Amino acid sequence: MDRMKELIDILNEASRAYYQEDRQIMSDHEYDGLYDELVKLENESGIVYGGSPTQRVGYTVLSSLQKVKHDSPILSLDKTKEPDKLVSWLGDKEGIISWKLDGLTIVLTYNNGELQRAVTRGNGEIGEDITHNAKYFKNLPKKIKFNGELNLRGEGIITFTEFNRINSMLGEDEVYKNPRNLCSGTVRQLNSKTSADRNVMFYAFTLVRAEGKDFEKKSEQLEFLKNLGFDVVEHYVVKADEIKDKIKMFAERLDVEEEIKVLEEMFAEKIEHNDFASDGLVLTFDSIAYSNSLGITSKFPRDSIAFKWSDELAETTLTDIEWNTSRTGRINPVAVFEPVDIEGSTVNRASVHNVSVLESLKLGVGDRIKVYKANMIIPQIAENLTCSATAEIPKVCPVCGGETEIRSLREGAELYCTNPNCSAQRIKALVHYVSRDAMNIEGLSEETIKKFADMGILNNYTDIYDIHSHTEIMEMDGFGKKSFDNLVEAIEKSKNVPLENFINALGINHVGLANAKLLCRHYNSDIESIVNADPVELSEIEGFGEVIAHSIHSYFDNKENMELFNKAVSILNFTGQSEVGDKLAGITFVITGDVEEFKNRNEVKALIESLGGKVTGSVTSKTNYLINNDVNSTSSKNKKAKELNIPIITEKEFIAMIEE
């Protein structure tokens, strides 16, 4: 009984964080394992406590949005990781198998053809009214050709492409961990402008009621919704002997090829055929009458079951916990363990994300842990077998020795260095300043910057423009006159720079290159207007909000920041905002494979965007061209392009296209 009470406390805390605060303090894998253990103990003991998460779904929502009681409870699904169980569960009936989208369940009500109300799932019984935001969902019809009352359920999601775009505009401390958290935070905003700017998508998966309409099968209901203009979740009608083949088909759709980096490797996600997050499949009986005859349990409907992908687990030993200080002062824990092979590659490190996750895992050096790859990609700790809880949270920064403090942020408790002169923060800030999307100064690697900082040559970014006077650099190991001259030349070349790159280089919180471009475009690259803009005016810029506006205003309102800024402005020659042409307007490209005519794929991407085109990470029906020098490659991107009859062109063909 003591263990049951302990599990209830742990699971309820995880649910509270997930449902109420849009953050995750443990992995889905860990939660499922603890939940299954609690179910087993309850079955064995015959005791079920009133506060057990097995007796309800989630927590009562806490926000200023209006609370709405659902006409019927929205229950979670029983689950399995065994395909054979799906086969036996379906028996001789027909079923529908579909994606289990990883977003936010939303209930919609239409009356006389118009959207009347949109309510989140909440705790399954009471949700929140988010109608003002649903009206701006990218693919949701505001009006439909149906005069009676219509009630349906579906999943609100944000695609990986949109997720990456939004995160690229946020500061390091504000990025979202996954699309699900971003979607949840977006649809619950009080200001509908945020939702409109973030392109939330809605996919219907259940018709609850259509006044005056009767159906025999759920597949007919989905077709009915599709005909009304709704996007419905991808689904197939199956019999028991077809289930395993369909599971294989869905699994192949998750094949991956390349990594997309966002915000200094804080988040890496691989995208191939699907531009949305999925945590499994759903199987439901197609017959409505049969489904209704089965009824429900206290927690699950009996007519549906979820299938979750089995993770390949590897047991290993934790050998160290590293703490890395970022340019914003956040100190990130990283688990180091004895190397193991998972999903075809060797891994020996995994991010622990933050202090909350570290404490929930009860980590300590020497612990036996199980690791896996989330979505078959990102190394994660699934569970701690020994739970020594001996890991110590540093009281001082591992780089500068300054005091640390724990701050409560959206994603949980985070450790920060409080020393504003922390050398790690200074070094990381300088590395960002000279990076490709900022000032693009070749020859100033992180190691070189560290050496210059130790010599007292670099204390802030304006010191870069005095490097030419430090001829002692030629006496350093690895440097000579030629290297020194090349570096000075690169610095001189960087002085002619678009204003948006310089704004990005400053490292203003929440302002990456994308937001810097929006800022410069709004003020026609007028520096004085940007510096003197008030928060209200800034918040009205397309894609901005109060947080970004406050960050920009605060930066330019700081005396020390402005001293460095004004010094740099007197040195630099701003070439204005990059011109955007329209030659490729409305054309979407995907780039894959090695490039030959350009330095790298980012250079190709920049050229496409400068001509008004768009570059995405995955091949979909909306892709116009796939650029790949190996047109006969058997890569998954090539296969998908051929399936969709999308032209595969080489770099030379692309160049010929834009030179026409």
Could you explain how this protein is built, in words?
By secondary structure, the chain is of the alpha+beta class. The strands form seven sheets. Strands 14, 15, 16, 17, 18, 19 and 20 form a seven-stranded antiparallel sheet that branches. Strands 2-13-12-3-9 form a five-stranded mixed sheet. Strands 5-4-7-8 form a four-stranded antiparallel sheet. Helix 1 (2-20) runs antiparallel to helix 2, helix 12 (423-433) crosses helix 13 and helix 15 packs across helix 16. The longest helix is centred in the N-terminal third of the chain and has 19 residues, at 2-20. The N and C termini lie far apart (76 Å).
Kindly list the characteristics that best describe this protein.
23 helices; 26 strands; 33% helix
Head-to-tail CA distance between termini: 76 Å
Main sheet, how many strands, which sense, barrel? 7 strands, antiparallel
Mean pLDDT, rounded to whole units?
84
Number of distinct helices:
23
Task: From the alpha carbons, calculate the radius of gyration and give it in angstroms.
Answer: 27 Å
Which consecutive residue ranges, at least 5 long each, have pLDDT under 50?
58-62, 255-272
Overall shape: globular
Which bin fits the share of residues in helices?
25-40%
